[in-house]
Amino acid sequence: MKFKNWFLLILLFLFQGITAQIKDPVKFKYNVNALANNEYEAVLTASIDKNWHIYSKDLPPDSGIPTEMKLTSKEGIDLIGKVQELGKKHDEFSEAFGAQIVYYSDKVLFKQKFKLKNNAKPANVVAEITYQTCDDRVCLAPNTLEFEQKVTPTATVDTSTTPEEVLAPPIDAENADSIRTTDIEATNIVAPVATTQDGLKVKSLDFAHPQTDCGITQEKNSENFWTYLLLGFFGGLIALLTPCVFPMIPLTVSFFTKGSKDKAKGKRDAFIYGFFILLIFVLLSVPFHIIDGIAGNIFNQISTSVWLNVAFFLIFLFFAGSFFGYYDITLPSSIANKSSKAEDAGGIIGIFFMALTLVIVSFSCTGPILGSLLGSSLTGSANIPMLLTFALAGFGLSWAIVFGLLALFPQALQSLPKSGGWMNTVKVVLGFIELGLALKFLSKADLVSKTFLLKRELFIVIWILISIGLVLYLFGKIRFPHDDKNAKISITRKIIGVLGIGFIIYLVQGLFPAERPRLQNLSGILPPINVSYLHNEGDGILGMHPEHDYFKAIEIAKKENKPMLIDFTGYGCENCRKMEEYVWSEPDILPILQNEVIMVSLYIDDKEALPESEQTSIDMGNGQKKKIKTIGDKWSLFQQINFNNNSQPHYVLVSPDGKVINTPVSGYMPKEDFKNFLECGIAFFKKGK
Questions:
Q1: CA 135 centroid distance within chain
Q2: Residue 526 to residues 267, 276, 278, 376: CA-CA distances in angstroms?
Q3: What is the CA angle 582-585-588, rounded to 5?
Q4: Average pLDDT for residues 390-419, to the nearest whole number?
Q5: DSSP symbols for 478-497
């Protein structure tokens, strides 16, 4: 197709509102400030939308796309020093990349000092910035923009302009006509086309009108607060079964139901008691919100630090020793005594201190569980204080519900099991769980420090040994200090022991090589699959060898009469790797990808240069120019023009005649959603054959 036709196609898409769905979460402003001694400072200020970020210029190899600022001038300039970054910095470990990454949110300034080679003549100073924008779910295509400003040595240049001023808007339908015809004609990018049977009419892909929508709707992932609420609730129920808490349940409930002449008042006080328990646990999270408000990035920094993860590893070992019965973890007795005396105040205040006393005296059993929730929150998300609040709320809610329901139905106390040796068994089992969780923190310290000593297989072997110890304990082969030497092994212990054997068998399979990743249910705990004695870089993805050129792939699709799956991806796309490892590899997904579709993976961050005749820049108005220099630039523009989208991963099913089959999907998604997308589109295609 000639350049003229390319231009018409692209212009048509632009006027139809190409930017309607294209995300543009970062806006730049360019200033050149005059300094002393004939020096100048070029400043690119990036304003970043909420929940989005761009990477730093300093990233480890094979991770994200580092931001790069270049300063040039045809008249000649001398750079002074290196580019400086100033902004809200985040430094954390990425599980997908297996490396420490640095990125910025909200606002960041990129500064470069320079001198003019000829101080007697004005110079046009061009700033070029290449960057990638991501949120928790998708990464957008890397973008390269150019800004130009004239610097006159005899005048003060833009010293009154501050980085906080209003930034230049991105390209939209209103300024699309500012794109220069000559630039677009020189761009070797065309909309994918399909020729109809008459061989005359050319139709472009129509992303806005797929042949079927399959009922697919995508919701943006948000922080999984409810998961932490349930984890906390479950942890609270377990804590109720420990020797520090369980014996106090009937005593406390009986106090309210039998100690009051007015039974209604007694039940009401019991509910208030439960509410105060919930309130106290929620209040424990308040200091974390205060710290976060003072230093918003502190939790992200410490949660990925080597020392913190090693500290948590040691703390969890300490907790395990306590659960095994070698020592007790208690708060100073003076705290419990003061709280107990305050109960004499009576009324609501007295009930509050009764609840506080319960929380304090049960700390030797609840402390390790609460520590586990804290550790999980610190490594689970950027919004750590809120996650911790939900976890502690769930913990307190379980206690409040139990005490409230038993106060309402006191006859249920008769059905509770009697205190006994089984409570110590609960503690010991929790001790083994603490040992297993401790290893997760040691693994993260190993990954962050890049020592990579704790390989995936070694981690699994240690877990197998811990599980064997648990099974031997449950069957009475080993004992701990507080175990009854003459106790009989209950049916419940035997059942849990059998489940433990099943878990060991499940773990063993992770020690052997396989075509697809194993132990995916433990993917958030085990080291990444590339930190392994068995890892082989090999060729392809999961044994597949996708095409990397749309036009070659469409010819194969025509030849084999199969639909084509376009995978807009990136080498530095974390969510793309997650989809490949945890979704594509599923046994009911991989055969579809291998046999039912023609795969084409288009890397929007491919840095291989295009032939010089195909390289160009597009004037986007407002002093911005988008450069098309690499294969990645080509496929990035290709995605935007034809699918009105610039996020990765982005999946599109296309028929051999170049028509979009069903509604495209983006981002990391559950397996069932991706399977529905594939199966619906493929079924529709086969039906229309």
A1: 8
A2: 47, 38, 33, 14
A3: 110
A4: 80
A5: S--TTS-TTPPPPHHHHHHH
User: Taken in order 108, 114, 119, 124, is the CA torsion positive or negative?
Assistant: negative
pLDDT in tens, 495-541: 999 999 999 999 999 888 776 667 867 765 777 666 778 765 444 46
Question: Can you list the alpha helix ranges (DSSP code H) found in 194-305?
Answer: 225-240, 248-258, 263-283, 286-294, 298-303
What is the residue-averaged pLDDT of the chain? 75
* Distance between CA atoms of residues 478 and 480, nearest Å: 7
The Cα–Cα gap between 351 and 410 comes to 19
Q: DSSP class of residue 402?
A: H
Q: What is the pTM of this model?
A: 0.50
3-state secondary structure of 106: strand
Distance CA 469, CA 433 (A): 11
Are 374 and 392 a contacting pair, CB within 8 Å?
no
Which residues contact residue 204 at a Cβ distance below 8 angstroms, ignoring those fewer than 6 apart?
9, 12, 13, 191, 192, 193, 642, 658
Q: Check residue 72 and give left, alpha or beta (phi > 0: left; psi -120 to 50: alpha).
A: beta
Amino acid in position 362: S
Count of CB atoms within 10 A of residue 137's CB? Answer: 17
Q: Over the stretch 178-218, which tens digit does the pLDDT of each residue have?
A: 322 222 222 222 333 322 222 222 244 454 456 666 655 55
Burial 323-342 (b: 16+ CB within 10 A, else e): bbbeeebbeeeeebeebeee
Q: Look at the chain and count its residues.
A: 689
Burial of 570 per CB tally in 10 Å (0-12, 13-18, 19+): buried
Nearest alpha carbon to residue 67 among 83, 81, 78? 83
pLDDT band at 579 (very low <50, low <70, confident <90, very high): confident
